[in-house]
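User: hey, got a sec? need MFS transporter folded
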Amino acid sequence: MLATGVSMVVIDATIVNVAVPAIIADLGLGATDVEWVNSIYSLMFAALLIPFGRAGDRYGRRRLFALGVAVFLVASVLAAMSANGPMLIGVRAVQGVGAAMAVPMTLAIINRVYVGRQRVIAFAVWGSIIGGMAAAGPLAGGWLVTEYGWRAAFWVNLPIGALLLLGSLRVPESRDGRATGGDLAGLVLAVLGTTGVVFALIEGQKYGWFEPRRTADLFGLRFESVSPVPFAFGVGVLALVALIVRERRRERAGLPVLVDLTLFELPSFRYGSMTAVIVALGEFGMILVLPLFLQSALGYTAFQAGLVIAALALGTFLAGGLVPPLSKTLSPRSIVRIGLALEAAGAAGIGLSLAPDMGAWRPVPWLLLYGAGIGFATAQLTGVLMADVPARLSGGASALQSTVRQLGAALGVAILGGVLVSGLGSAVERGLSDRPQQVRTSAARVVEESAGAAIPALRDPAIHAAAVVAAAEATRRVTFITALALLAGVGITLLLPRTPVVRDESPEQVAAGGPDTGGREPDM
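Assistant: Yep! Here you go:
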């Protein structure tokens, strides 16, 4: 039930990406409106994870989960009824608020309620559903939008959310009895910091980091001769630094804190968070570039591309079912390492299989391998990361690790998106070496600025052929960088503390303050 709650959030984000062309046609949105339909959701979600995580510890995790689902549902209804761009953007922001309430509570409740191997199984189910739904979202979105229109992408949340609200009644309530008053200044700094950094990482390629690429109208301010990205990034970093300094001072003074930085003193949480950043960056690579390549370069529809990507979801679900028996003989750290290695091999294989004239099923075996890696790594990494976290701090720790993952995903947008776009432009120019410089530059700019989306509209056969080859080269480069990032994640797992093969625990052990850490056995 908890995993389904997060999967609803994940699916909604991916479905909206597929539905964008239909939304534009129906509501007549401009380019800026379209960008904010997606960006505002991610920004609100990332910015509010930390404060809502602490709120769950204080006021009750089940209560905040149910409230988040309810807010998400109300916003979904309003989104489905939206009559114009500003209304849709506004309710997407509210959806982000609801998602920020619900998502960290799922991990916090799992960490508090389940023990021993049951916790391993719970995290395996959670991870396989989340990873699988992220890949299946484009397929579901393509079908829904094609058959029922873009509004169905929001109406579909109603039956799922209603079942979640009913199911939440069976979840035991938990909270941190020692949690006290809030930290308003810390809250402002956390929201400002995460919003600034995530905005800069997501929008840097669009607006430019130093030289402005386009005019930006943000919150009533118009940026023409300068990009807003470095300002947002600078403000975000300064706010996060100020937050760390403030929380350290409050901690020493015995005052309540918004972010419990002592969590990073736990080796499992510290190195697990570092691995999570790398994993999020690497995993984002495939979801970012492969559907775009299939649709823009090979001419697939959104639904056809979703069918290919569904192999990734299948691999994730299959691997999730193998984790419980594997956990009888392998430690969680070992399962994470195996998963990351499989992901790296899958990403490299996908890159080697890409070609301008490839068949639809050529990358499928590698997508299955990549998905299996996600099924092994993602859920168990969460379990490793949360292993030594006291149960009373589950909400704050879950929110903090979710924020870390969001920052890793945003970093993936910045790095891998930049690699894709720059690779497209340079490869198009090379492919048109026999054409005049003006033609080469113009074609490269069109393909680069659209991230390849303009390829199907290119009428000149030579330019179209060069653009397709360029898309294959640039996408291949991103997949190889993704593989290297995931291999770096394997290296970081070597820093994780040795963990035992998980045994069942008694409720008395959990009530004593957290998971049993005794009886360590040999680890890989």
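Quick note: The longest strand covers residues 216-218. Let me know if you need anything else on MFS transporter.
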